[in-house]
Amino acid sequence: MAKKDAPPRWDRKMQQRLARGEAAALGELYDRFASLVHGLAHTVLGDERAADHITRDVFAHVWEHPDSYDPKQGPLRSWVATLTHHLAVQRLRATETAALARAGRGSTEELERKVRHASVTARADFIVQSMPVPLRAALELAYFQRRDYRQTAADLGVTEDEARRRLRLGLQLLATAHDAGAPPGVPPGYGGAV
Fold it and tell me: Model-level pTM greater than 0.85?
């Protein structure tokens, strides 16, 4: 097994290829993560065109600043998702602030509540997409099909104890959606306009 602090080989190689300016690497990265980026941006912004812009901005940032990703800090997928989240929340905040100024009503507290809700929703979406399939399957059965742990165990062909464990771990992961961390490798004032 690899050392805990050793980043995945693909992540290191991809960063090196991007740093050398390999356009094919950007295409490969886009193919792998575009749906994730667009989906997270759309979850935060609720707007298809804005999500398209964020998707473009994220990949432009990765192309222009491949060294801002530090493989020792975590997987490239997480870094790209964090960058997406940061840029989408930044755009939501700017858009909503402009709307408040035009309308002359509303408050910054309402704005921050809306931004916080969109942020937590996007984090929860990313967590569910990233969790191991057995945990996600158990949560989907329990949530979407209203199965209890006994029915989930029967549907998945596992013991009741295993079903409870999967549900508990899945819910514990989802609970972390409220934790807001500073995005690694994201410049503080990056506006993302390309």
Answer: no
